[in-house]
TrEMBL record, chain A:
Domain Leucine-binding protein: from-to ranges: 30-366
Keyword Transport: yes
Family: Belongs to the leucine-binding protein family.
Name recorded for this polypeptide: ABC transporter substrate-binding protein
Signal peptide extent: 1-23
Automatic annotation (TrEMBL), chain B:
Family per record: Belongs to the binding-protein-dependent transport system permease family. LivHM subfamily.
Designated name of the protein: Branched-chain amino acid ABC transporter permease
UniProt cross-references to Pfam families, sorted A to Z: BPD_transp_2
GO (cellular component) term, any one: plasma membrane
Listed transmembrane segments: 12-35, 42-62, 68-87, 99-118, 149-168, 200-220, 232-259, 265-285
Single Gene Ontology MF annotation: transmembrane transporter activity
Family annotation (InterPro entries): ABC_transp_permease (IPR001851), BCAA_transport_permease (IPR052157)
Keyword Transmembrane helix belongs to the record: yes
Length: 402, 295
């Protein structure tokens, strides 16, 4: 009996030391949780497509890093910050999730950022836009990958200013993201010497924009800035055409648009719109190759959010492989150290505040005559180099930047 | 120019006109709901989904069969109406003897299935549907630019609303219908086929939703979510107007459209709750609704 007990203790001690030594990966699996809107207005720009992109990144590693299998789990946060927070907590506390990825909707992302910061989990943001995520609310574990409101405001604001459009009116989605986008654009417009004639706030998921557009039309502004996203932007652009806004000399600026929005609008309604993008499938052979594979699985070309999820997950897995552990502190340090090099970003780098710096593109939607086929939607007007595309980390207000 | 609370009058007129346009959508949808509730005592939660199906039928006709807007205006309500009759015959008719709750649960479930199926097939961003050529462009009214299509929507829905009210309240067929709701056994004894009449009524009610869907297609994206965005407001309209009251549904629909339009000028952030605030107040003061009678 006594020998048995001793042997058992010895075995247990051995086992206890053996598990971490073999892999250095907590519970022996890297679990990546893709948390986004899978049923609401952002489901087409993120949704299942983001999960597909994450799986494609894992497959490139043979679904295995540092000797541990990689698993992708998904959940729908329904654009509600409280659901996002409770799902994130559940994943971290009981689901063994090591990384949370995507999380469009800035309100939801800010909630998840708080949780991943407290619980020391890596957070790869592709969908949200709020600059606070790499500013006052930054986290040592939070990485903001694809775009942010500053980049959108700077790219589009400057381009329109150069065309002599100086007086703005905003139609803004009334929550964290829209307000932040309006604020960033206002700052940019004013710093260039332009003015803001006014703004109107609409609830998320509005069907009828006519009333807001009429107010914008009456303001006498040169540019109507749409500080909203997804289905809201699509409806606003469509109805702006109906009310003859562009014919009467005002320009419409989608401050955040995705290729899925252009696809939904059709070129007839979307032609001529100019905006800032983080990714376009038809840039070079690498982007075309990857997007073709994506299309085979998803049935459509990727948005920048989906391509960004792929890039972020891939970079994370690279960092885990290099660090040979999934310890959040070590992986986060590796992620900042390694350059980001894939089809999405060339010579990208992660700053101290978690912002990933990569080139952005000013694009204009083609006319139906210019487009050669399905998904041939953009003319790339210019490439905005990484260091001017995003805010200088020193000005972000993030306490991690020294 | 004088201004009212800091808002110039031309802006106010513009917003009131837009409110009227939205109100006519509310009226058309709540009319169908009121007809169904008044005649069948069924709370039709599938109404929003069938409105969406109407819009999708129009889009499918255009994309795959080349049938344009005017054709869709006739065909889509027929398709939705037939779908409604099939649902009524196969499922809903079995529930009349049970509590209201069962009809509500069934139609709610049907709404989720329809929406889920379309979302799976077509995604959430929706499909574009062009404004018909004859109604492109608009009129400059001095205080605002009124797109021709929106003017058409107001005229079309008001005509249909009035026609329906007239048919039910002032014709013989309407009298049969109203009698059948009061006492089906007695009406049947007079030789009228009540079950067929009930099926046709449900079909007609949802056909109205399908028609509203076609009218909405060129304005909004044809999207699987378009119904669920609207149906909650429409339910509020029916509750405020008085469950089952046809005149109540029409008047309240238009009135709330106007009120919402005004809210969008003075305090836009509240524009999506103002209808529910009114609903709460009406329920406190007059629980049967503005035009409803106590049962």
């Amino acid at each position: 009996m006594r020998t048995l007990l001793l042997a058992g203790t010895a075995l247990l001690t051995l086992a206890g030391t053996a598990i971490p030594a073999a892999a250095q990966v907590s519970d022996n699996v890297i679990r990546i949780g893709v948390l986004n809107d899978r049923s609401g207005i952002y489901a087409d720009l993120a949704g299942e497509g983001s999960a597909i992109a994450a799986r494609m990144a894992a497959e490139e590693f043979g679904n295995k890093v540092a000797g541990a299998p990689v698993e992708i789990v998904v959940a729908d946060h329904q654009n509600k910050a409280d659901i996002a927070a409770s799902k994130a907590r559940e994943w971290v506390d009981t689901g063994g999730v090591d990384v949370i990825a995507d999380v469009p909707n800035s309100a939801a992302a800010l909630a998840v950022q708080g949780i991943t910061k407290d619980k020391k989990r890596i957070f790869l943001m592709s969908g949200p836009g709020a600059t606070a995520l790499t500013g006052a609310q930054c986290s040592p574990y939070g990485f903001h990958w694809t775009y942010d409101n500053y980049a959108m405001a700077a790219g589009t604001g400057r381009a329109l200013y150069e065309q002599g459009k100086k007086k703005w009116f905003f139609v803004t989605a009334d929550y964290a993201f829209g307000q932040s986008l309006e604020e960033e654009t206002t700052k940019m417009v004013k710093s260039l010497g332009g003015t803001v004639a006014g703004a109107v706030r609409h609830p998320l998921g509005t069907a009828d924009f006519s009333s807001f557009l009429l107010q914008a039309q009456g303001s006498g502004a040169d540019v109507i800035g749409l500080a909203n996203a997804g289905g809201d932007t699509v409806n606003a652009v469509k109805q702006a055409a109906e009310f003859g806004i562009t014919q009467s000399g005002q320009s419409l600026a989608g401050l955040l648009m995705f290729i899925s929005d252009v696809h939904a609008l059709g070129l007839q309604a979307a032609q001529g719109l100019m905006f800032t993008e983080g990714f376009y499938w038809d840039m070079d052979d690498q982007t075309r190759d990857w997007s073709k594979k994506f299309e085979a699985k998803a049935g459509k070309k990727p948005t920048m959010v989906q391509a960004g999820v792929y890039s972020a997950v891939k970079h994370y897995l690279k960092a885990v492989e290099a660090a040979k552990t999934d310890d959040a502190d070590k992986v986060a340090a590796k992620m900042r150290e390694l350059p980001v090099e894939d089809m999405f970003a060339r010579k990208g780098k992660v700053a101290a505040n978690g912002r990933m710096f990569h080139d952005m593109y000013l694009v204009q939607v083609k006319t139906p005559a210019e487009s050669k086929g399905p998904w041939d939607y953009y003319k790339v007007v210019k490439t905005i180099p990484a260091d001017t595309a995003f805010m200088d980390p020193k000005q972000s207000g993030c306490p991690l930047v020294k | 120019m004088v201004s009212l609370l800091g808002i110039p009058p031309q802006v106010l007129f513009g917003q009131l006109l837009l409110g009227l346009i939205n109100g006519s959508f509310y009226a058309l949808l709540s009319l169908g709901l009121a007809v169904i509730f008044g005649m069948l005592n069924v709370i039709n939660f599938a109404h929003g989904a069938l409105y969406m199906v109407g819009a999708f039928v129009a889009w499918l006709l255009l994309t795959y069969a080349g049938v344009g807007y005017w054709g869709a205006l006739v065909v889509a309500p027929l398709v939705v109406g037939l779908l409604g009759i099939a649902l009524e015959k196969s499922m809903l008719s079995r529930l009349y003897k049970l509590d209201h709750l069962y009809g509500l649960l069934l139609t709610f479930g049907l709404a989720l299935i329809l929406e889920g199926a379309f979302r799976h097939q077509y995604g959430v961003s929706g499909q574009p549907y062009p404004i018909p050529d004859a109604l492109k462009g608009g009129q400059n009214l001095g205080f605002m630019f009124l797109p021709n299509y929106r003017a058409w929507v107001v005229v079309a829905s008001l005509t249909i609303c009035f026609g329906t009210w007239f048919a039910i309240e002032r014709t013989k067929l309407g009298a049969y219908l109203r009698a059948a709701t009061e006492n089906p056994t007695l009406v049947q004894a007079f030789g009228i086929n009540v079950p067929v009449m009930v099926s046709l009524t449900y079909g007609f009610g949802v056909a109205l939703a399908g028609l509203a869907g076609v009218l909405a297609a060129p304005i909004y994206q044809v999207s699987p979510l378009m119904g669920s965005n609207l149906i909650i407001i429409v339910f509020a309209v029916v509750v405020i107007g008085g469950m089952g009251s046809i005149l109540g549904a029409i008047v309240t629909g238009l009135g709330l459209g106007l009120l919402e339009g005004l809210t969008k000028v003075f305090y836009p952030e509240a524009s999506n709750i103002v209808v529910f605030v009114v609903m709460a107040i009406v329920l406190l003061i007059k629980p049967a609704g503005l035009f409803g009678r106590e049962r």
